[in-house]
Design goal:
By secondary structure, the protein is of the alpha+beta class. Among the domains are: about 120-205 and about 455-515 and about 550-570, no CATH class; about 225-315 and about 400-450, no CATH class; about 330-395, no CATH class. It contains 20 helices and 13 strands. The strands form 2 sheets. Strands 6-5-4-3-7-2-8 form a 7-stranded antiparallel β-sheet. The chain has a 6-stranded antiparallel β-sheet with strand order 9-10-1-11-12-13. Strand 12 and strand 13 (about 565-570) form a beta hairpin. Helix 18 (about 480-495) crosses helix 20. The chain is globular and about 90 Å long.
Length: about 575
């Protein structure tokens, strides 16, 4: 094939079609300018056509012929950075302003499930979460957050070198302090955190949690939406019913042990994480309740019907709250509007449907009888009417509004229900035959001690045409409520009362921050500390978790401390 006949062909040099179109467009403009301009305007005598047609096959910007000494000079002038304004710091070269620069020294790295990219790190430092809600004023304590965090990213102007390279003695001491529930009280400010053995041991202590079952090759949290992460991993129990029975029998012993510890107030709370929903058991005295409570989210109508059939009494706090709010709004509308028709009209404007009643179902076809055509119209059967009545109940399935609350002795019935429930374990898919995950802040029968993964990163980022040091500490894993509070107490002392944190929430558990309106007025701090003396929590952490939840269906996304006072966004 004779390639010399192809227009614009350069041997050994190929360009995408879009680039070729651009070059041809520039070529036509250049030819038109040369043809129309007088010789004096061009600044040189006309050249031969062969000279104009000659091209540079190695040019990276423009292969089109151009008037000599004009276009390329103008392009070079356009690339020059603008001069710095008066009063501003000297501008750095533009190529240095394109991305942050990491320090040259190597940084110790572990391999958590989620890593940090320097670009996202600098973005999170300045714009951590785009949410409008902020605490009204700085406070000495932030509200309890009962959601499970999957990742924490702490940032500070002070380095986190004290959290690196713990000695073997410090790790062992941290484990011992956790198992013996030893209380650590640090001073308000630690001058040399890296030299503080007490701080480093307490840091190790705050990273401990307990897990069942323990399968090191599988990531057992989160379980909701984890099929993709578990797929392809070795699961010998998926096709072995005998092995599944052994796993479930061992799991039943572990969850029973946890409930007994909870009832004896030796365990403050624990989570049951299934592939469809999560259960939070809390001891009496926590979250403003004087009895044991259990919350389940999200739920379905099928699960709620199964619980009713087992005799478990429960409530739907968010549904009841919404119903009460609608009733109050209806009363206000009745006082403001005399006519009932106007009230119905207002509710229809809001997109709400009136709840169906038995009278409506029985009398909705009476007008057909008056017209004498009742036999010619097919009426809905009993099943259709029943489904219509249950429409509003089914609409909350898989949503935060489906939160179920179980109180008192009904939690023991719920425990038996979970142990015997066939649908608690998936029968197909990557999680088939795998028992639910149990997470606890304290040891229990069959539980395995686990550690949250921690690593520090030092970087530099451009801020206002200058570079500033960024010190960050990343915590990865199922961060339970007590661990979040313990870590903030350590950072308060180690970082001199100034740090910020981005919190990543396991969304199905955010609804556990709902205020259940079950606070006992007679419940006070003295009674709580008297009833929960050996639950394994620090007294300040216990005091925080005993307060009534105030975050609603949301959770803390951003936490900041300045001058030893907290502000947060949710």
């Amino acid at each position: 094939m004779d390639t010399s006949a192809i227009p614009g062909y350069s041997p050994g040099f190929k360009k995408p079609p879009a680039t070729l179109r651009l070059k041809r467009k520039r070529l036509r403009r250049s030819d038109h300018a040369v043809a129309s301009a007088p010789p004096a305007a061009c600044g040189a005598a006309p050249r031969a056509p062969s000279a104009l047609a000659r091209r540079n096959p190695f040019s990276s910007l423009d292969n089109a012929p151009r008037a000599a000494g004009t276009t390329r000079t103008r392009e070079r002038q356009d690339l020059r950075p603008p001069p710095p304004s008066r009063g501003s710091p000297s501008a750095a070269p533009f190529w240095q302003l394109l991305e942050p620069v990491c320090e040259d020294k190597p940084v110790r790295r572990e391999e958590p499930s989620e890593g940090i990219d320097i670009h996202t790190l600098t973005d999170e430092l300045h714009l951590p979460v785009a949410v409008p809600e902020v605490s009204s004023s700085p406070r000495h304590e932030f509200p309890a957050d009962w959601s499970i965090k999957t990742r924490l990213l702490f940032m500070s102007s002070q380095p986190f070198s004290w959290a690196e390279h713990l000695k073997a003695q410090e790790e062992a001491q941290g484990f011992a302090q956790h198992c013996r529930a030893i209380e650590t009280n640090l001073p308000q400010t630690i001058q040399e955190p890296k030299l503080s053995t007490e701080l480093r041991c307490a840091f190790q202590q705050s990273l401990v949690y307990w897990l069942h079952p323990s399968l090191p090759w599988l990531q057992l949290f989160p379980r909701i939406g984890a099929d993709r992460k578990i797929a392809g991993k070795a699961c010998p129990w998926s096709q072995d019913e005998a092995l599944q029975q052994v796993l479930m029998s061992d799991w039943s012993v572990s969850i029973t042990s946890l409930y007994n510890l909870l009832k004896a107030k030796l365990c403050p709370y624990f989570y049951v994480c299934t592939y469809q929903f999560t259960v939070l058991f809390r001891a009496a005295g926590l979250a403003g309740s004087d009895v044991i409570t259990a919350e389940i989210s999200p739920t379905t109508r099928g699960l709620r019907e199964a619980m009713k059939n087992e005799g478990i009494e429960f409530s739907l706090p968010l549904v009841e709250e919404s119903r009460t709010r609608k009733q109050n709004n209806s009363e206000v509308n009745l006082e403001a509007e005399v006519s009932n028709s106007l009230e119905v009209g207002n509710s229809m404007e809001l997109g709400e449907e009136p709840a169906p009643s038995d009278d409506d179902d029985d009398e909705s076809f009476s007008w057909l009888e008056e017209m004498g055509v009742q036999d010619k119209v097919k009426k809905p059967d009993v099943l259709s009417i029943k489904l219509r009545k249950e429409k509003h109940e089914v609409q909350v399935d898989h949503k935060p509004e489906s939160l179920v609350l179980v109180r008192g002795t009904n939690t023991f019935t719920l425990l038996n229900f979970l142990i015997n429930c066939k649908s608690l374990v998936a029968v197909a898919g990557p999680q088939a035959g795998l028992p639910p995950t149990l997470l606890s802040p304290v040891a229990f029968r069959g539980g395995t001690m686990q550690m949250l993964k921690a690593r520090s990163i030092n970087a530099k980022a451009r801020v206002h045409l200058a570079y500033e040091d960024i010190f960050s500490l990343e915590i990865v894993g199922p961060v339970l409520p007590h661990s979040l509070h313990s870590l903030t107490m350590l950072l308060r002392s180690a970082q001199k009362g100034a740090f910020s944190a981005v919190l990543y929430t396991h969304e199905p558990t955010a609804v556990f921050n709902t205020n259940l309106n079950n606070a006992n007025p007679a419940l006070n701090k003295e009674a709580i500390h008297k009833d929960l003396p050996t639950c394994g929590l620090h007294p300040k952490t216990l005091d925080q978790l005993s307060q009534c939840p105030t975050l609603g269906k949301s959770s803390i996304r951003f936490l900041e401390m300045k001058d030893y006072a907290y502000t947060w966004k949710s």
